[in-house]
Amino acid sequence: MKSDAAAKSLLGGIRVVDLTTVVFGPYCTQTLADLGADVIKIETPGTGDSFRWSGKPAHTPGMAPGFMAFNHGKRSLALDLKQQDDAATIRKLLAKADLFVVNVRGKALERLGLDYDAVRAINPAIVYVHCVGFGQDGPYADLQAYDDVIQAASGTASLLPHTDGNPRPRYFPSLIADKVAGLHAAYAAIAALFHRERTGEGQKVEVPMFEAFSHFTLSEHLAGQTFDPPQGRAGYRRQLDPDRQPFPTSDGYISIVAYTTEAWDTIFALLESPDFMADPRFAGPKGRWSNQALLYQEMARLTPRFTTAELLRRCAAHQIPAQAVRDIGDMLDDPHLGAVGFFNRRQHPTEGTMIELAPPVRFSAAPNTPPLPAPLLGECDAAVWGD
Length: 387
Fold this sequence. Notes:
- The chain is an alpha/beta fold.
- 38% of the residues lie in helices and 14% in strands.
- It folds into two domains: 4-216 and 340-357, Rossmann fold (3-Layer(aba) Sandwich), CATH 3.40.50.10540; 247-324, formyl-coa transferase, domain 3, CATH 3.30.1540.
- It is built from 16 helices and eleven strands.
- It has a six-stranded parallel β-sheet with strand order 3-2-1-4-5-6, with helices on both faces.
- Helix 2 packs across helix 9 (176-199) and helix 9 packs across helix 10 (209-221).
């Protein structure tokens, strides 16, 4: 029987066996947990998920902030899958599971007896989500993949040099490839569950990180190479414009977006330089598009005459999108995020007071409820699904 809380949640009653580590897979399963799924995280005894050790804990070794961010809402079960009894335990769990999410490479899964064919023999209706680095029918199939590797392989590390002239490739300073791929895995899992709901059919779902992130990056940056023969270079010009950066103010920086042709006139009027747009080079949409660099350069010359607050007020009054540039360390003070309850101050059973991010998506039929706290290693009983 489902509990009242499970019955009200979107994925209430869905059972997930989670054999993933670091970020790609855990971000997927945490998203499922946020939606109400019952997620059992399988970890190696003694060390657990390596991301447990990715930063300084508050009290308990193995409870790093990054681990807690990607694993709340789950329960942890420590199993050595090379041992006969523990291997039997995970098979019992899989027999009652709806989803198996795994990021172990294929050959290792075969050695463990946890490849798709073996798991399907235990539970024909299971949805088996395999988070892999590269599609398993390509030449990179057996290579290891982490966020840095995927940013490099996908062309992402080449983007910053286009904007600032420094030829050295650089990573975007976020685990962006891991997280994007994790979201792909989450929607794929839900789609496969929906398919099973209609047909009764389980299936294997392969989610390759390289392909997922390349799809994410190239959607706009394939650009001139979209056509055959090519009509230009790869790279979406607007995103790579070196002058399209936050503008300096007298006391900071501000982002101002001119997304329509008419917006340019409004912006230069509120910057108290309306005559600048009378230049024939800026006549019509084509002239403004081809000369955007000049427009950005003039904006950067004008904005230091104003405070950030004054420009925000003027932009809001004229329906021009704008936001102050905020340091990442100041996000806890954002008034909007505070008003919508984005940061939840909670008491963890062992780590004390902590800040937890609320799920960003809201559903009217299933109000968000606080998830389980991030688990200590192996705190879950092996008989969790004994019913």
